[in-house]
Design goal:
heterodimer, A: globular, B: Rossmann fold, 32% helix
Chain lengths: 246, 295
C-alpha cells in the first residue's frame, strides 16, 4: 500500500498543470474576497476579522478542492482506461487502493491549506497565534478525509465524462452551503438550516474555532466523523463493485 | 497440481450467455491457447480465472485456490485487453512498482530485458508506441514472476515485427516451467506458441487438442462455383467433399482436400464457372459442433 501511495503522490505532483490549478485557485479567491469583503467587521461567533476568517474559508475551500479533484475524475478515468482493473490482477487489495488514494488526496490538501495561510500572513497582514495555527493545520488536514472519500465514491460510481461536472457540482454545493464563500447567515433560510449538517461547514468551523483559540464543539467532531464513516463505508464497496461489474 | 480447474462454470450477462457450462483443466507448466472468434467467451473465461468476474454457477480454482486468493498470493500475472497504462510514470517506475507488489518478483533488469524494454526504461510509458506499450504491459504481467501468466489477446494491437518479438519473450518466460494461458483469434499464433489449443465458440469448448490436430480440423475449405441449372447430383461423392449446399445458382462444397475436389470437379463434365476456393475459417470449421441445427 505504501508503494502505491508513493506512486500516486509522484504522479500527482508530476502533473504540474493540475497541481498548479489546485493550489492557485484558492489563493486567487482568497486575495479577491479578502479585498472585497474586508469591511472592518468581525465574525460574531469567533471574533475573527474578515481577512483571517476568509483565510480559513479559502484554506478549507482549497483543501476540499484538492481532495476532490485528486480523486473523482482521475479515479473515474483510471477505471475507464483499465488501469484499476489491471491493478486488481496484482496482490494489491482493493481496500489498499482506496486507502492509498485517500491519503494521497489528503497529501495534496496540505499544501492548499499552507499556501493560503502563507499568502494571508505575507500579503494580507493576518496575524494568528502560531500554536493555534498549527492546531488548525493539523486538524484540517485530518478533516479533509471525508472529501477524499467522497471523490473516490464519485470516481467509482460515475463515468469519466460525467465525473468532472459531478465533482465540480459537489465542490461548489459544499462550498456554498458550508459557508465558505459567504457566511451561512447570508444564505436563504432553507439552506441555512441544513448548513450545519454539511461536512464543509463543519470543516470550516474546525478551522475558524481553532485559529481563534477555541476548542471545536463536539457536534463539529461528530458531524465530521459521521460523514467520514458514511463516505468511507460507501466508497470501499462502490469501488469493489465496479471491479466486479465489468 | 493443476494450475487451472474450471468445473461446470457458466456466466451470463443479462440475457446473454457468455459462457455455457464449461469444464477445463490445465496442468501446471502447460502453455494453452484459447482460440476463437469475438464473442466466443474467451475474455469472460479469463475474467473468471482472475477473479474479475464471478461465475453464476460452477467452480473456478487456480492452484487449488479461489481465483482472488491466488491473485492475492501473487501467483497470477495478467495482461488484459483493456489494461491501459497510467500517465506520468517511466517504464522502469511502473514495472518496478508492479514488481514490488509480489512476494517473489523477478529482478527488474531481467524483466526489462525479457520484455525487450531495456532501451526505453527511462522513458514515460504512456508516451511510447503501441507495440512498446504492449511490451510494458507484458512486463507488468511477468514482473511478479507469477506461476500462471494469463494473456488476453496480447498481440491485438501489434504489427508483424512486434508480434514476433513478443512471442519470443513469452516463450522465454514460459521456459521456466510456468503455466501460460493466452487468448487469440489466430490459429497460427496458437499453433506456434501453445502446447495445447482449446477452441471456443458461443461460450463453449468446441475442440481441444494439439496444434496439429486442431489445424487439420480447421483446414477445411469451401469450393464455390456457378452451377446454373445443371444437376447437383454426384457432387457429394467427389473426393474430400463433406457437404454440399446450393445457394441460388451457386454450389458450395465443403472439402477437407480442396485440390482433389477441384481436380475431380473439372472431370465431371459440368461447366464450371466462377470457381472460388476459400478457407472456411475457424468459426465455420468448428461451429457446427456447437449447434447441430446450424446450416
Amino acid at each position: 500500500m505504501l508503494a502505491y501511495l508513493r506512486l500516486e503522490i509522484v504522479r500527482m505532483f508530476r502533473d504540474r498543470r493540475f497541481t498548479f490549478f489546485t493550489l492557485a485557485v484558492p489563493v486567487a479567491f482568497y486575495l479577491l474576497w479578502a479585498n472585497v469583503f474586508d469591511d472592518g467587521g468581525r465574525d460574531p461567533a469567533t471574533g475573527l476579522d474578515a481577512r483571517t476568517y476568509l483565510m480559513v474559508s479559502m484554506a478549507s475551500f482549497g483543501a476540499i478542492g484538492a481532495a476532490l479533484s485528486s480523486t473523482g475524475q482521475r479515479f473515474a478515468a483510471e477505471r475507464a482506461s483499465g488501469w484499476l482493473r489491471q491493478l486488481r490482477t496484482t496482490p494489491l487489495r482493493p481496500t489498499a487502493v482506496v486507502a492509498a488514494r485517500t491519503v494521497a488526496a489528503m497529501v495534496l490538501a496540505l499544501p492548499a491549506i499552507l499556501l493560503v495561510s502563507l499568502v494571508a500572513v505575507a500579503f494580507q497582514g493576518v496575524r494568528v497565534d502560531p500554536l493555534h495555527w498549527l492546531a488548525m493545520v493539523a486538524l484540517m488536514w485530518l478533516g479533509a478525509l471525508p472529501f477524499a472519500a467522497l471523490g473516490i465514491l464519485i470516481g467509482s460510481l460515475v463515468g469519466p465524462d460525467a465525473a468532472q461536472p459531478v465533482t465540480l457540482g459537489c465542490y461548489f454545493a459544499l462550498s456554498i452551503m458550508g459557508g465558505l464563500w459567504m457566511p451561512t447567515d447570508r444564505l436563504p433560510s432553507g439552506l441555512r438550516a441544513i448548513a450545519g449538517w454539511t461536512p464543509s461547514n463543519r470543516f470550516g468551523s474546525l478551522g475558524w474555532t481553532l485559529v481563534s483559540g477555541h476548542v471545536p464543539s463536539a457536534t463539529t467532531g461528530l458531524v465530521l466523523a459521521g460523514w467520514t464513516a458514511g463516505l468511507v463505508g460507501l466508497a470501499v464497496p462502490a469501488y469493489r463493485r465496479t471491479m466486479r461489474a465489468s | 497440481m493443476d494450475a487451472i480447474t474450471l468445473t461446470d462454470v457458466a456466466k451470463s450477462y443479462g440475457p446473454v450467455r457468455a459462457v455455457a457450462p464449461l469444464d477445463l483443466t490445465v496442468p501446471a507448466g502447460q502453455a494453452l491457447a484459447l482460440l476463437g472468434p469475438n464473442g466466443a467467451g474467451k475474455s469472460t473465461t479469463i475474467s473468471m480465472l482472475l477473479g474479475l468476474a464471478r461465475p453464476d454457477s460452477g467452480r473456478v480454482a487456480v492452484f487449488g485456490d479461489d481465483p482472488l486468493t491466488a491473485v492475492a498470493r501473487g501467483r497470477v500475472g495478467a495482461m488484459l485487453q483493456d489494461g491501459a497504462l497510467v500517465e506520468g510514470l517511466t517504464v522502469r517506475e511502473v514495472v518496478g512498482f508492479v514488481r514490488g507488489l509480489y512476494p517473489e518478483p523477478l529482478p527488474l533488469d531481467e524483466i526489462l530485458a525479457t520484455a525487450d524494454l531495456t532501451e526505453v526504461a527511462k522513458r514515460r510509458a504512456d508516451k511510447l508506441s503501441g507495440g512498446q506499450r504492449q511490451r510494458v504491459r507484458f512486463a507488468m504481467a511477468i514482473a511478479g514472476g507469477p506461476r500462471l501468466l494469463v494473456l488476453d489477446e496480447p498481440t491485438a494491437a501489434m504489427d508483424v515485427g512486434s508480434r514476433r518479438t513478443f512471442w519470443t519473450s513469452m516463450r522465454a518466460y514460459a521456459a521456466g516451467g510456468r503455466t501460460i494461458l493466452f487468448a487469440t483469434h489466430y490459429l497460427e499464433e496458437a499453433d506456434e506458441n501453445a502446447d495445447r489449443i482449446v477452441v471456443m465458440a458461443r461460450g463453449g469448448i468446441v475442440a481441444d487438442g494439439s496444434g496439429a490436430e486442431i489445424k487439420s480440423r480447421a483446414g477445411t475449405r469451401t469450393v464455390r462455383f456457378t452451377l446454373g441449372d445443371q444437376p447437383a447430383a454426384g457432387l457429394d461423392r467427389l473426393p474430400g467433399v463433406t457437404g454440399v449446399e446450393i445457394r441460388g445458382t451457386s454450389a458450395v462444397l465443403t472439402s477437407t482436400d480442396a485440390d482433389a475436389t477441384t481436380a475431380a470437379l473439372y472431370r465431371t463434365g459440368l461447366a464450371v464457372r466462377d470457381l472460388e476456393v476459400r478457407g472456411a475459417g475457424l468459426e465455420a470449421a468448428f461451429l457446427d459442433l456447437t449447434s447441430p441445427d446450424h446450416s
